[in-house]
Amino acid sequence: MPDASEAPCRQGALAGVRVIDLSRVLAGPLCTQMLADHGADVIKIEPPAGDETRGLGPPFTATGDAAYFSAVNRGKRALALDLAHPEGRELLLALLENADVLVENFLPGTMDRWQLDYETVLRPRFPRLVYCAISGFGASGPLGGLPGYDAILQAMCGLMSVNGEAQSGPTRIGVPIVDHLTGYTAMSGILMALLERAGSGRGQRVEATLFRTALSLLVPHAANWMHSGKAPGLLGSAHPNIAPYDKFACRDGLVFLGIVNDRQFRRFCERLGLHALKDDARYASNAARLAHRDSLRVAIESALATRERQALCQELMRAGVPAGPVNTVPEAFEQAHAADMRLHAQDYHGIGPPVALARTPGQPGGAPPRYAQHTEEILTEAGLGPERIARLRDSGVLPRAP
């Protein structure tokens, strides 16, 4: 990774693309970090109070920002603007003159109140701009304009209802999966709009909402309900359509078996010496195994009780049977196969980019920026001189670090 003081790396598939990032917290910053990882020049513009994720710790990094902030803001340049001030909005418009993409996750209507509405102000002035709005529910509909938060959407959209066990009841998924996937959804929409612009010459508005994203995660549960009329319930780690597809106890910990067809089931039985199981009509097909999943579990756990999980999983995977140890987060990153997914440079720690392009691979940019770290650099590029920058600081349009 480049040093934190260096400009973001501009190699990669998105070299030459400039992104103005007005987003905060997770979905928007994750989206723009992925764009930065592949070469985009991302200018992060924070409000006077800063991105609230900077304070969501401990733990904190050596620069005083929360580790949470560092997870989704590398490779960006930072500026702070008070957009409630007319001169702050003028500066934003000046920066958009050379921008390809704008990403924001304000409450719907905020940009309109600032006279920065896409349809009436930005699109006529910047016809090539790709404008991405991320919100909880969008601007219209019964819930339009309301704030959205990952866990609330997990609850509202049925995700919690299928996650957990009878003892726990409906349970929040342990990662902010709705925020995370919304970031990917927003990035996909931006890239599609940029691709279309290459032919038409015109930008467009892209919308990604937590609500629609959360509902899209209900595969296969929603389809099962739509076709059967039966509401899905809690299955713990099991799958509603496949068996055995669940976690099981070995001598030294848990493993997960993901056996999805009869061939894999027969191989599994042969490796574990479960020959009677392989020839039992109750387990001859996936539908039969689903109908007898309880007795199947008893037989499998009896066979696994004396086995060590790492050796067992390696043996099964090499035989074509999907199986993996249930690892902790440290164990996950200690796997040799994860060596290039753990980033470390100076005081920065992070997760590597999940996608690799063979010819234009890109690379993670510099460490996450300090609050307003690149103010002079960005505004000088926009044509402002030292005297005007100083005056804007004095007036509060360029806020000082909170």
TrEMBL record:
Residue stretches spanning the membrane: none
Keyword Repressor found: no
Keywords recorded for this protein, A-Z: Transferase
Keyword Glycosyltransferase listed: no
Any one Pfam family match given in the protein's UniProt record, by short name: CoA_transf_3
Protein's recorded name: Carnitine dehydratase
